[in-house]
Amino acid sequence: MILIYFAIVILVPIWAQFRVKGTYKKYSQVSSSSQYRGAEVARKILDDNGLYHVGVEETRGYLSDHYDPRSKTVRLSSGNYHGHSVAAAAIAAHEVGHAIQDQEDYSFLRFRHALVPVANLGSNFSWILVMIGIFAQMSNMLLLGIIFMAAAVLFQLVTLPVEFNASNRAMDQIVSAGIIRNDEERETKKVLNAAALTYVAAAAVAVLELLRLVLIYTGMTREE
Questions:
Q1: Exposed e or buried b per residue across 64-88, where buried means at least 16 C-beta atoms within 10 angstroms of its C-beta
Q2: So which residues are the catalytic ones?
């Protein structure tokens, strides 16, 4: 049973990453009908929504695309910034989806931003407290570690609606703007769905790990 658990915890994220990279590689070689580069897709959708103040920049790294709410900037990795593929259009539109969420004060995005300090603290210190609690048989220390970890897990769970909503906005925007044709919607959705898998996998593994620690804690308190 323990081996099955750890196999799931290790293999699910690897499978999700493999799926993302495979889907991205496939559709990064499929040109979109509009021939818009990722940077042009982002700029057009931003302008169509009145977000003229939001910048579009190229950033280093592979699939390092993100929206920075502090500087109000959509940053696209080189392949997506310059590429005119279906994958580049999908990812650029997705990141702009976050910019639109920011502009509209989307509740889950605000909640996620508020959780960042607590989630970072939980990620950095939870395992230290958990390990001390388990090895020293200190249930109170283990409970404190679980509480810190729960904050990080909550952050991952809140991330799910944020990401899915950004993808839905992306589809609406690139279709209405004529960036992709109707027959390209299926390919675009595959790219967005594959990317979402990484967040789903991460959240699922985090919840499983949290539940495992809760079971360890309940067993420890019974022995006390």
A1: ebbbbbeeebbbbbebbbebbbbbb
A2: 95
Which residue's structure tokens are 């388990």? 134
Mean predicted confidence (pLDDT) in 166-189: 92
Closest by Cα among 153, 131, 156, 128 to 210:
153
What pTM was computed for the model? Answer: 0.89
Please give the Cα distance from 197 to 199 (Å, whole number): 5
Residue 1, pLDDT > 70, answer no
CA 131 to chain centre: 28
Numbers of helices and strands, H then E, in the chain: 7, 3
What residue has token string 């390092």?
64
- Structural domain boundaries enclosing 214: 7-223
Dump pLDDT digits (tens) for 90-115.
Answer: 999 999 999 999 999 999 999 999 99
| Domain tally, the chain | 1
Angstrom distance (rounded) from CA 75 to CA 73: 6
Instruction: Give backbone dihedrals phi and psi of 77, rounded to 5 degrees, phi first.
Output: -65, 155
Is residue 70 situated within a structural domain?
yes
- Whether 155 shows a pLDDT value over 70: the answer reads yes
In a domain, 2, yes or no: no
What residue type is 98 in one-letter code? H
